[in-house]
Amino acid sequence: MAAKKCVNCDLVSVERVVNRWIVDYNLSLALELFKKQKFEEFNEVRNVLSVVMKRPVEATSDMPLKIRMLQFLGRINEGENLALIYDPGTPVSPLESALLLLENIMEAFGIPQQDCEDASNSLKVMIVATFIKNGNFDKAAQMLNKFFPKPVGLVRNILEGLIRQKNKTSNSFSFQLFKQEMLAFVQRLCYFDVPFSYRAAQELLTMRLEVDGIEEAEEIEQEETNATPSPQKNPVPFQPCKHLIILRSRLESVYNALSEDEKTFAQLEQEVETEIQDRDGLHLEHSSDSETQDDLNAERADLPQRNVCSPMEASPAEQPPQTDDGPQTRARSLSKEHYTVARLVTEPDSQSSSQYTTGLEELETEAGTEKPPQVPDGSSEKELQCPVSDDETAIPTPKRPRRSKKTAARAAASVLESSSDSEDNSVEKRKEMQEETPPCQSNKSKSRNSGTSKRHSSGLQDDYITPVKRPVRQLSTGSSKKKSSSTRRSISPESVGESPITESCLDSPSGPCHQHPVPQKSSTPEQAFPNTKWKSLFRTAKESKVTWNNEEMEFLLKDTKGSNESIKSNSGHKRKWTDQETEMLKEGVKTFGEGNWSKIKSYYDFKDRTNVNLKDRWRTMKNLKMV
DNA sequence: TTTCGGGTTATAT
DNA sequence: ATATAACCCGAAA
C-alpha cells in the first residue's frame, strides 16, 4: 500500500535521493578498496557508480570533487599500463592523463597549487619511473626534462642515473607506495565521511548479532532470507527490525516464555502491536523526542518537526544502544515499534506516511552532509519515502547476513567479488547495462576494455569535457615491456579499427559509439549525450541541485569500463604478469611470507591467478633475481 | 586443500 | 631455433 502512494509520487525525486546514498556509499567504498589494494573491486565499484550516475542523482556539493578524485585514482591505478593510449593524436600514458586531470581538477575546484604540490611531484616522478621500468628510456628522459627542467635535485639525479644506465629493474620507486600516497592525497583533499548507509548497515548488523546472542538466530535468519527475495513486501523484510525492537521493549518479560514455548516473533509482534495501538497518537511526539537524543542523527535538530525516524533505518540503528533506560526509552521504543511492526506488518495507516517522511529527512541530512536541505515538497516526499525507507532497510538485510562484524565496506566488497568472477563477465555485464550499446564486436576482447583512462588523458581540458570519447587504445609501441606481446595480438585488430566501439559503448552511455566522431567539447550536457534517452535522463539529473557535469559522468563511465586489466589475456593463452601484480606479489610475500600463496592471493585481489600461479611467478622472479 | 618441484607449452627474439 | 615466462601435473603434507 505504501508502495502505491510512492508510485504516485515523484519517482524521480525519490530516485535521486536514493541514488545519492548509493553514490555516497560507493564513493567511500571505492576508496576503502583502493586502500586495501583490492583494485579489481575498486574497479567494480566504479562500475557501479558509473551505472548509478546514469540515473538521476541528487548530488551534494562535494560529490563532484569526489567523483573526479575517484577518476584520478582510477588513472593512477592503471598507471603502469602504458599500453593504454586514449588519444591517438596525442598519446599520453595513464599517469600523464592523471596529472592532466589533477591540474584540471585544481583549476575547476580552485584548489591551491600548494595543496597538490607533493602529489603532483610524486606523480611526475612516477611518470618518469614508469617509463624507465618499461624500458622506454627515451620517453623517460623526455618526461624528466619536461617535469624537472632544473638539472638539480636528488630525485632527478636518481632518475637520470637509471635512464643513463638503462636500468629498468630498479626498485627505488614502488608503485604500490605511490598508489597509497595518491590515496592519502585524495583523502586529504576530500573528506570522506562515513556514509549514512554504511552506518545504518553496520548498526543493523550489530543488532542482529546481539539478537542472535540472545535469541535463536535461526528464526531471524529465516525471516531475513525470506525477505531478501521480495524486498518489496514490507512485512517480511522488516520483521528483523521488529524483532529487534520487540526484544528491547518486550524481551525481558517475554523472553522466558519465548524460549520455553518457542513463541514466534510474530506472536510477540502482535503483542507489541496491541500495545502500540493503545498508545497510538503519542508515537509521533515520542519519536521526535527520542530521536533528538539519538547519536546517529545529530542533524535532526535541523528538522525538529519531522524527527521521527523512518522505521527501518532509524530503528535498527538506534535501538541497540538504548537497551533499557527509563520511561523515555520505553515510550521511544514503543513508538518505533509501532512504526515498524504495526505499520508495516499489519496495516499501513495514514500516519505511516508522515512517519516515514520524517525518517527520510533524517537520513538525507546525515547522508547528505553538507547538502542543502532540499526538502522540496513535503507531501510528495512523504509518500515517496515509504518505499525508500523500505528499500534501504531491505537492501542491507539481505546483502550482509550477519556474516560478520566486518565493516560494511568489507562485506560489500566481498559481495562484489563474488559477483564479479572474471573480468570478462564483468565487462559484459557492464555492456549489458548500457543498453544502447550496439553489438560491439569487441566483446571478445575482454582485455581491451581495460582502456580505462583513455579519455581525457591527452584531451586535457577540452577532451576532458568532451563527451566524445575517442579513447582509442593503441598498442603502446615499445612502451609496454613484455606484456605487450599478448596484448597486441588481441588488441590491435580490434582496438585499432574500432577501439571506440568498446569503449564508446561503455563510455558513452550517453552517446553511442557512432556518435563519437564529432568531438563535442560542449559544456552543455545535452550535447554530450546525443542519445535521446540519455538526454532525458541527464536533464532529469540536471534538475537536481547539483548537476553532474558531462565530464564527471564521462570520467566515471570511461574509466570504469576499461579500468580493469589492460592486458587481459585470453583464457587459453599465457598471461604476462603486470608490474602491478608483481608488486602485489612482492608485498604479499613480504607480508605473509613465501609459501603462503593462498593468503597472499586472498588478501590481494589477484584476478585470475591461482595460488600456483603466484608460486610460479615468485619462482620466476627469483630466477630473474628480481627478489 | 595447499604447496612444491619437475615438466610442458606458448611466446618473443 | 632457442630461451624462457607462464602454465600444468602429480606428489606430498
Question: How are the elements arranged and paired?
Answer:
Layout (H helix, E strand, L loop, with lengths): L1 H7 L2 H25 L3 H14 L10 H15 L16 H16 L3 H21 L3 H11 L6 H12 L9 H15 L6 H19 L2 H11 L7 H27 L3 H14 L4 H11 L17 H12 L4 H20 L3 H19 L9 H17 L1 H4 L8 H12 L3 H11 L20 H12 L18 H24 L17 H4 L3 H12 L6 H14 L15 H14 L4 H7 L7 H13 L4
Helix pairs in contact: 1-18, 2-3, 2-4, 2-18, 2-20, 3-26, 4-5, 4-9, 4-26, 5-6, 5-22, 6-7, 6-8, 6-9, 7-8, 10-12, 10-15, 11-12, 12-13, 12-15, 12-16, 13-16, 14-16, 15-16, 17-18, 22-26, 23-26, 27-28, 28-29
The structure holds a DNA duplex (13 and 13 nucleotides).
* Count of alpha/pi helices: 29
Give the termini separation: 65 Å
Shape: globular
Using the CA coordinates, give the radius of gyration.
27 Å
Q: Order of helices and strands, N to C? A: HHHHHHHHHHHHHHHHHHHHHHHHHHHHH
Number of separate strands:
0
